[in-house]
Amino acid sequence: MHLIIPTEYDPKLSVRQTQEAIRYIRETFQDEFGKQLNLSRVSAPMMVDRATGLNDNLNGIESPVSFTMKDMPTKTMEIVHSLAKWKRNALGRFGFQPGEGLYTNMNAIRKDEDLDNFHSIYVDQWDWEKVITKEERTIATLQQTVRQIFKVIKHMEHEVWYKYPNAVHHLPDEIHFVTTQELEDRWPDKTPMEREDLIAKEFGCVFIMQIGGALKSGKRHDGRAPDYDDWSLNGDLIFWYEPLDCKLEISSMGIRVDEVAMAKQLKIAGAEDRLHLPFHQKIMHGELPYSIGGGIGQSRLCMLLLGKAHVGEVQASVWPQEMLDECAAQDIHIL
């Protein structure tokens, strides 16, 4: 457990006012986000059958919450980590065309998460996915989409300022792009997370590209599952967060693997056994559309826009009593 306590913290909004602001941000953002990216809202599952291979494996070491059902005793169900694979499958199933996409309110449990100011075992995000053509699988497409998302977040800053002028946390006006290799070249003696802090503090908002593969040093910047993001066409959207004097990641996204990238990345990850799973078979046989997608943290966005010190101020989850006590003593009101 790692907790940052800001000095002289002022929540600015009462718990009840915070709840009202949460509702406003979530409802307003998803409508504007859907319009900007041409996405339709769809319903999505909270659990999937393990045998489908649709669950997000994250870094490959986290284990999902699983259970069996009375009416399906031979099947093992898993609470989703995210809907990274399910969404792409849904694009094909629902007949979305290039330029069209979907988003959903995703609720997940990541029981192996390390708890701190930003991380909870309960994950709530807008999971989204959009059909693109093979020719659009480029850095230019990725950056254009990131800029659209940044534009919507900036729009939300102005909307929140209008309703809660004393509470809004002001954001930078521009976003910058950098690769993980450029970060390693610049700060070879720093850890990847230290590099992210440094670049976020320098620019205010950055999109860190190409996460998952090995750098020149032979080390990875960070882990990524090998079977949804193309490691050469993905990244994380992060802001420098003054209230806690550190970076805050809002979104992880990328252009998804095609059959070539998935086969290559599964081999690197030593996970070629997944190739027999239904989802992976569809990709290898060209039965799913090419796509770009990601997740945008709902609670993290609320935290960012309202300048909150702890994600527990904008979502209801479970926390160690020690953390609850320390937060209460510093006027950090955990829901």
UniProtKB/TrEMBL annotation:
Pfam (any one): AsnA
Start and end residues of each Aminoacyl-transfer RNA synthetases class-II family profile domain: 23-320
Biological process according to GO: L-asparagine biosynthetic process
Reactions accelerated catalytically: L-aspartate + NH4(+) + ATP = L-asparagine + AMP + diphosphate + H(+)
Entry keywords, A to Z: Amino-acid biosynthesis, Asparagine biosynthesis, ATP-binding, Cytoplasm, Ligase, Nucleotide-binding
GO molecular function, one term: transferase activity
One GO CC annotation: cytosol
Entry annotated with the keyword Nucleotide-binding: yes
PROSITE patterns in alphabetical order: AA_TRNA_LIGASE_II
Pathway(s) where this gene product acts: Amino-acid biosynthesis; L-asparagine biosynthesis; L-asparagine from L-aspartate (ammonia route): step 1/1
Gene3D superfamilies hit by this protein: Bira Bifunctional Protein, Domain 2 (3.30.930.10)
Protein location: Cytoplasm
Coiled-coil annotated spans: none
NCBIfam families in the record: asnA
Family: Belongs to the class-II aminoacyl-tRNA synthetase family. AsnA subfamily.
Name under which the protein is recorded: Aspartate--ammonia ligase
Organism in which the protein naturally occurs: Loigolactobacillus coryniformis subsp. coryniformis CECT 5711
Gene name linked to the record: asnA
